[in-house]
Amino acid sequence: MARAANTQLAVVTGASSGIGLELARNCARAGFDLVIAADDPAIEDAARELRTLGGAVEAVQGDLATTEGVDRLYDALRGRAVDALLANAGHGLGHGFLDQDFDEARHVVDTNVTGTLYLIHKVGRGMRTRGKGRILITGSIAGFMPGSYQAVYNGTKAFIDSFSFALRNELKDSGVTVTCLMPGPTDTDFFERAGMMDTQVGQGKKDDPAMVAKVGFEAMMDGEGDVVAGWKNKLQAAMANVTPSGMLAEQHRKIAEPGSGKH
């Protein structure tokens, strides 16, 4: 991918649809060249669309739950400096933990946590050496509450939310900013992919991914530490801080238990 002089480069993961594609659109409109990645062949369609916004775009298809997939993405940079890393790749898994296929549950952990950390580690070191860069990590308000019938996903987001705040503190004098975007339920293919379309949360009203991405992108560009998208989610996040964990788990059960959307 040819890069014009002085053009900044952004890397966006999970960019084939949903929040990730909207984040990539924000980057393209702001003048960034792009390297985008996802495990979905639709990443090529996303790249073709994003090129119409004016910048150079390279697509990488790979499983970012694996070190091989992350290495493939990193190799696609060909040594170029990354100005903004938007680590958005992630997915969920519904139903009770003991009813889940363990390989599927592990893939959630490896995508949301292990692959995300590996990519940030590789790209973040270069940013720190240069003394400049922006990192946006997509966490979730799900990280504030025990996720009955979504236990693995919520656990990974609790990790990511916490990790984001810690990394920001470690890099506070480095010139590298770390922003954590914490959406609530968003109108993407997340719930269908997680097998949660028969749940209350799967069938309920959701936020517009374009709105969520705009909030996150602007927070990243402003160097903010964390941002919750949507006023209802802000209220829910605030309430989670003062509500006993057992009560939160029961509340989550009501919206995520299989069949809860049929009432």
Question: Could you explain the architecture of this structure?
Answer:
The protein is of the alpha/beta class. It has a single domain (9-262), classed as NAD(P)-binding Rossmann-like Domain (Rossmann fold). It contains 10 helices and 7 strands. It has helices spanning 18-29, 43-51, 67-75, 102-130, 151-170, 190-193, 200-203, 209-222, 231-240, 245-256; strands spanning 9-13, 33-38, 57-61, 84-87, 133-138, 176-182, 226-228. The protein has a 7-stranded parallel beta sheet, sandwiched between helices. The longest helix is centred in the middle third of the chain and has 29 residues, at 102-130. It is globular and about 50 Å long. The mean pLDDT is 91.
How many domains is the backbone divided into? 1
**What is the CA-atom radius of gyration, in angstroms?**
18 Å
**Name given to the CATH homologous superfamily:** NAD(P)-binding Rossmann-like Domain
Question: Which structural class do you get from the secondary structure elements?
Answer: alpha/beta
**The CATH topology:** Rossmann fold
Helix content: 40-55%
**Strands ordered across the widest β-sheet:** 3-2-1-4-5-6-7
**Largest sheet entry:** 7 strands, parallel
Work out the strand percent: 5-15%
SS elements, strand count: 7
Q: In CATH terms, what is the architecture?
A: 3-Layer(aba) Sandwich
- Say what oligomer this is: single chain
Order of helices and strands: EHEHEHEHEHEHHHEHH
Low-confidence stretches: none
Query: What overall form do the CA principal axes indicate?
Result: globular
Task: Give the termini distance in whole angstroms.
Answer: 52 Å
- Assign the CATH class: Alpha Beta
**Helix count, DSSP H or I runs of 4 or more residues:** 10
Pfam families: adh_short
Family: Belongs to the short-chain dehydrogenases/reductases (SDR) family.
Protein name: Short-subunit dehydrogenase
Keywords: Oxidoreductase
